[in-house]
């Protein structure tokens, strides 16, 4: 098997499992771990993967709302179902520009008198369809890579309201840094929303665990609850168990 064929198979394993395990991949392909390690180095040089202990994961990159919306639907639906009970019928909440938050809005129950602020035109449009919800769009400069509104105007608008809860996802999460984002300006808006919120709820599919993007956004001290599609007792959550409430 030539190198190009091996690397295609490695990427297929990444698509299926969310990670390329060094030992498992070597066994599956019938080659040495050193051969797999060289293939991972080549894929990392191309910017496709990032090597981690024991293998590699997909490189964290900015993707449009449409691209993000089409991935991980089952996990995002489970996360949204878990988060529904934390959405009040009255008061005010903030929602980020993530597709995971979009899944939450798609399942939102009719409210009594709820103000919902977001820096996403997509999520604003979804919120407007829910009875009893007054949707507020936090304007600013449109970030074309994530289709969110960012910049000083968006940051100022985010701080003009107070919120009972802020629901947000992240590009990546690790125990040391908290949440990190691919876009610096996106991280800035999220920090303003955290400051204005009584509680912050992190909605995160498990593929983003133990990973790191460029811009530090929210430290663990700013997050009240972490909701994933996993059972809270899952060992993959062990590094975060003492940092945040798990659901």
TrEMBL record:
Protein keywords: DNA-binding, Transcription, Transcription regulation
Residues of the HTH deoR-type domain: 3-58
GO MF entry, a single one: DNA binding
Transmembrane segments: none
Keyword Transcription belongs to the record: yes
PANTHER family cross-referenced by the UniProt entry: AGA OPERON TRANSCRIPTIONAL REPRESSOR-RELATED, HTH-TYPE TRANSCRIPTIONAL REGULATOR SRLR-RELATED
Identification of the protein by name: DeoR/GlpR family transcriptional regulator of sugar metabolism
